[in-house]
Every structure is written in C-alpha cells, then in structure tokens.
C-alpha cells in the first residue's frame, strides 16, 4: 500500500491549485505560466497534492469558505510523464 511519504512516481498524477487570475478560458492553453511560479508562501517550492490521496475538490479544503465561495480556484492536473519532460522533481512532504 502506498503512503504519502513514499516517492512520487513519474506516472503519478498531482494537482496544483490555480488562482483564477491565472486562468483564461479564451486562450489555447488556458492556464498561464504564472500559476506555476512559487509564491511567497511556497518556501519549499510549489505546493501540489497527490491524486492518490485527494480528490480535486479536496485541494480547496484549507481555503476560507467565504473566499472559496466568492472566488473559486481551479485545480490543474499534470499529465502523466510531463514532469520528466520538464525536469520537475516532486518530493513528498506529508502534512500529517
């Protein structure tokens, strides 16, 4: 059984919460590059959620409900193998 402290496999899906300011449905690729730049709170790199352990809606669980209702974020899913082609490394950092 896989637990969230084990390494993230190349073919494993991960989710990234994307703020609506980085999503433009009119674009060919609707998610802008800024959605994948670390923010001030990303002191260990980009935060992602492993699809083995959460559903897309779960990525919003720590967002204040009034903000979530007023301005819902979008959850992006990486394509399998895309991390390898972009030389991205994901290290598990379980929250529990």
Structure keywords:
96 residues; 11% strand; globular; three-stranded antiparallel sheet; little secondary structure
Neighbour order of strands in the largest sheet: 2-1-3
Distance between the termini: 17 Å
Report the sheet-strand fraction.
5-15%
Number of strands: 3
The number of distinct structural domains comes to: 1
Helix content: 10-25%
- Rg to the nearest angstrom? 14 Å
If helices are DSSP runs of H or I spanning 4 or more residues, what is the number of helices?
A: 2
Structural class: little secondary structure
The main pleated sheet reads as: 3 strands, antiparallel
- Average of per-residue pLDDT values: 74
Written description of the protein model:
It is built from 2 helices and 3 strands, in the order E-E-H-E-H. A 3-stranded antiparallel β-sheet has the order 2-1-3, with no helix packed on it. The chain has one domain. With 96 residues, it is largely without helices or strands. It has helices at 65-70, 82-85; strands spanning 14-18, 49-50, 74-77.
Q: What is the secondary structure topology, with strand pairs?
A:
Layout: E1 14-18, E2 49-50, H1 65-70, E3 74-77, H2 82-85
Antiparallel strand pairs: 1-2, 1-3
